[in-house]
C-alpha cells in the first residue's frame, strides 16, 4: 500500500487506464440514476472504456455502519465483488465515497489478515471466486483530476461563473493513505469547478459531513442530523452557493432530499440544488441534460440550467 | 503502525472486541473532539473522553449511554488523528457490546427491514412499488436499463452469503422487547443538549 498520505494524480496513474471497471453504486443507480449515467458519459468522452458486471452486488458496508452484523459477511461480499473485477484484469473505480471507503478498508483488512482472507475465500470458493488483492480501488474523481487538461479542453458549455459549493464527503478524505489530499483543506474539487468555468465557493461549513450515512432513521437520529444540516446549508446559502456538488450519492441524498423537510419544519429555506460532480462535468462538456436524470432531484435544477441556457427536460 | 500488523493466520473470525489495537497510542490531544460534528452539537459525546474511559476500564457507562448512538460515522476523528487511531471502529466495537447487553436495540430493530430487503435485491435503497415506478421511469428516460442490471446469480449468491454468515439470525435475535433503558447522562460539568 502506498504510504504517502496525499499523492498527485499523476502518481496514482502514471498511465491513464484504457478500460476501467465501474463499481455500481446502489444509491447512484436507484436514488440518482443520472449519476451513473453521467460518470459513464464522461469516461466515454475521455476515451476510457467502461466495464460493469451484473454479478456485482452492493458493497455491503451498510451492515457495518448500522451495527447490523459482525464484519464477516461484508468481508466475504467484498472478496466476492473484487474477485469478479480481478478476473478481468482491471482496476476498480467507484463513484460513491461509501463504496470507496468500504472496499478500500475491507480489502485492506482482508489482505493484512491471512486468516480473514482464507475464511472469506472459503465461503465464495464454491462459485469459483478467489480474491487475491490484485485489483486496486480508485474513485473516479481521481481520474477527473488526472485528465483535467483533457476535460478543460472539452468544455462546450462553460459554467459562466456559476457559484458552486463543493461537498467532498468524508469517506474519501478519511482514508489515511494514497488519496488526492490530506483532508485538512482539500481544494481539488474547486480546481475542477474552475476548469469548467464555474466559480468555486469556499463556504465556511464546506468540509462538514452530510450527517447521513445509511443509518438515517436507524442509528442516525433526525434530532441530531437536522440541526447539523441546517448549519451546513445555511453556511452555503449565506455564501451565495447556487449549486452544490457531491462525489457520493449518499451525501447527495442527505443534502438534497432533506431540504423540503427542513423548510416544512421552519428551519430555513435553502433551495440549493445538489448534484454529482460527474453530472456537472458532463453538463459542461456537452452531454445532453436529458441523459443526466436531474428529474430525480428533490431541489429543482431549473434555475441552474436556465442560467446555462439549457431547459430542464 | 499496529493496524498494519497481521494477526495470527489461524484467526478466522474478526474479533470485534479488539478492532483498534493501537488505542493505547492515543495522545489525548483532543483533535478528534475538536473536529467532531456531533460533539459540536452534543458536547456530552466526546471521542477523547470515550477513549480515556475505555482505556481506564470504564467502558460500561458508555455502553449504557445514548451517546454512542450519535456518531455520524464521518471519520473526521480518524482523518485528524496524529496516532492513526480509527475511532469509528471503537464506536463499532462499543455498539456491538451494547447490543449484547440489551442496550440500543431500538436503533437496530427498524434497520431489519432495510437489511432484509437488501438481501433480496443485492442492492440497498431499493424502494417499494411506487418508488420503483419512479426510478424505472427516470432510468428509461436517460436511456438506461429500467432496473440496475443485477443478475439472478448475484442475488442468489448474495442471499446465500447472508445466510451463511448468520446475518438474518443475528438480526432476529434483536427485538425491542428486551430493550434496557439507557442512562443518558454522562455530563461531568458539560452542557447537555436536550
Question: What does this 3D model show about the protein?
Answer:
The complex is a heterodimer of chains A (313) and B (194). Chain A is built from 15 helices and eight strands. Chain A has 313 residues and is of the alpha/beta class. In chain A, the strands form two sheets. Chain A has a four-stranded parallel sheet. The longest helix of chain A has 17 residues, at 222-238. Chain A is globular and about 55 Å long. Chain A starts with 8 loop residues before the first helix and ends in a 6-residue tail after the last helix. The mean pLDDT of chain A is 93. Chain B is mostly helical and 194 residues long. Chain B has two domains: 9-104, Orthogonal Bundle (Fumarate Reductase Iron-sulfur Protein, Chain B, domain 2); 110-173, no CATH class. In chain B, 46% of the residues lie in helices and 0% in strands. Chain B has eleven helices and no strands. The longest helix of chain B has 14 residues, at 87-100. Classes of the chains: A alpha/beta (313), B mainly alpha (194). Chains A and B meet through helix 2, helix 3, helix 4, helix 5 and helix 6 of A and helix 2, helix 5, helix 6, helix 8 and helix 9 of B.
Quick structural summary:
Chain A is of the alpha/beta class and 313 residues long. Helices cover 45% and strands 9% of the residues of chain A. Chain A has two domains: 9-140, Up-down Bundle (Glutathione S-transferase Yfyf (Class Pi), Chain A, domain 2), CATH 1.20.1050.140; 156-307, Rossmann fold (3-Layer(aba) Sandwich), CATH 3.40.50.11810.
Secondary structure layout plus pairing:
The complex is a heterodimer of chains A (313) and B (194).
Chain A: H1 9-12, E1 19-23, H2 26-30, H3 33-45, E2 49-51, H4 62-65, H5 72-87, E3 92-94, H6 97-112, H7 114-124, E4 137-139, H8 140-146, H9 148-154, E5 163-166, H10 170-173, H11 188-195, E6 199-200, H12 222-238, E7 243-246, H13 249-264, E8 274-276, H14 277-284, H15 302-307
Helix pairs in contact in A: 3-14, 5-6, 5-7, 6-7, 12-13
Chain B: H1 31-35, H2 37-41, H3 47-55, H4 60-63, H5 76-80, H6 87-100, H7 105-108, H8 111-121, H9 129-141, H10 152-164, H11 167-172
